[in-house]
Amino acid sequence: MKNSDGQLYTIEGFAAALIMIMTAYLVVNATSVYTAGDTHITDMQLEALGSDALKMMATPDNTTMYIGDNSSLRLILENNPPDGEKFKAIFLNLTNNRSGAMPDYYTKINSTMDYIQFYANYTCRDSNNNVNTTNTISYSRNLTGGEHTVRATKWVIVNKDICGNVVKQNRAVLVEVLLWRD
Amino acid sequence: MARLNDDAQWIILMGFLVSFSFFFLALVINQSTIVGQTTAESVIEFPKNDIRDVRQVIGQSIVIPYTGSSNFSTVRNDIEVLSINRKGSVVDFTNFTNGSATYIKIHYNNGVTEYNENWSYL
Question: What are the residue ranges spanned by the domains of chain A?
Answer without folding.
Answer: 39-96+111-181
